[in-house]
Structure formats: structure tokens, C-alpha cells
Design brief:
5-stranded mixed beta sheet, wza like fold
Amino acid sequence: MSPKRPFTMLAVLICVVFGVVQGQQQQTYVLGPGDVVEVKIFGQPDLNSTAQVDGEGNLSSLPFLDAIPAKCRTEKQVQKDIALAYSRLIKDPQVSVRVVDRKSRQPASVSGAVRTPGKVQTERKIRLNELIAASGGITEKAAGTIQILHTEPILCPGPGEEVEAMPVAGTAIPLRIVKISDLQAGSVNPVIRSGDLVLVTEAVPVYITGSVVSPGSVMLTDQLTLSKALGMVGGTRKEAKLSEIKIYRQKGNAPQQVLKVDFEAVKKSQKPDIFLQPYDVIEVSDIGVWDTGNILKTLAGIFLRSTPLPIPYD
């Protein structure tokens, strides 16, 4: 089974419980600048109003009232303060407060190797696995890491989050990198905050030619070794010359490197396995004759079946 499949199944499970979560967030949502509320005073239609939380976190446009604090408070808390304020003008006011437009939280954006890139609302606290599931799960093109860039401070920090709520500024880049393997294992699952930019990094190809079962390209995922890559194309053929597998490595304008690997020794744990790099070309020759023309012919076929990425220049 592909290591990316658990996220597809997780997406289904989260969709099942999503309706329950939405119901719960009505009780837990706290206001922030930009949110719009509808205020109604029973029996006093002239006092009914729609107001927006201003930049300082207050409701400043309610008829006959001074500013009412609203930032990081619930509807019920604001409703109680408005009722207390109006009790100085009318007897036993019956007040209702309802959020009609939630504008204080920017959605998180997800891009890269997910099935449905786009924006995900963050009106409540969500974690990275929920965000990935809401984006359809991770695809087979994922390189193995997820980058999270914070663009805004936490609106209403909880206990222990005060440092995290500092404005994003200065020389420190608020970037966090999470390994997909750690996320799948449950050892890490950070909270996604409003406005976060989340990139599931996409892998670049390596090319495998010559005496293997299915010559072609494979995606360079995290810590991909020569052994794993050969396994992904079905392994080597009987006539393969395992004592000398060549890896052609190109980096920008530098001269091409040719690495010769004794794969027989690697299989016997006599030599370490080789970690592959972007755009490596692996040549597995036959015990007989194998020339450059065969390599080029095989690579041409691979390129026609796929859309390779350009070789990066330093």
C-alpha cells in the first residue's frame, strides 16, 4: 500500500465528523476585528443594529452606547455586556447577539502535492492532518516534507501561546518543516493558524534505464536510495551487471559526475546504499554490451511518457 493512502482514508473520516465539528464551533467561536454581529433588543426596534468589530477589537457603533469590548470574546459574553449597558437606559433589556459575517480569520492555503489545492477556513483550531484531509490527501508526487509559513500572529492565543502570538516581523522567518512520515506516525501534528501557507513539497524525478524490469522515472521522495528506486521499477533483470551500476549526476553548469556503484556489495551490506539526488540517471547495464545510444533511446521513451522538470541551475 502506498504511504500516502492513509491520508485519503483520513479525508473520508473527517468529512463524516465535520458536521458535528461545525455545530460545536458555533459555541466556541470568539470574535475578532472585521467580524459583523447583529444586535437585537426585544421590544426596542430602534435599538436594533448591525455592527462590525473595529480594529481595536470593540463594537463602537451601537446606538447610545460606548464601545463594547468584543475581541476574543463569545457572542454570549458580548451579549451580557450589551444587556448590562442598555439596562442603564431601559428596564430589563432582552438582548440577542448573533455573528452574521465572519471576517476576522483568513483561510489557510494549501498547495503542492495534494489532490485538491485551495483555501481552507480556519474559524476554529484545526491541525495539519485535518487540513491535508480537507485538501483530499497527499498525492504520490509528495517529496516527504510539508512546509508551513505563518503570515499572521495568533488572534486569540491560549495558555502557553503568548510567544507564538507575537507579530510576524524581523529577521526570523516563521517557517516550520514537518516530515510526512512523522505526521503519519502521529508524533507531530501542529495547529494551523489563520492565514498559514502550507506547501506539500513535490518530488522531482530520477530516471532508471537499462536492464531493469520497467525502465522509467520515479519521484525522488525523502531519503530515496538506489535500492528503493530499483525496487520501484520492478528490480533488475537476470542479465544485469550489478557489480557496476552507473549514476549520472548533473548539478547546474558543473561537469557531470559519473558514480560507479557495486550493487552486489550493497545488497550484501558490504557497502552503504547510495542516496539519490534530483534528476539522477541510473544506468543498469547488461553483462553483455550496453552503449550510450541505448541509454538515450530509453530516456527518450521515458520523456515521451512524462513531463520531466527542468534541471535546476545553481
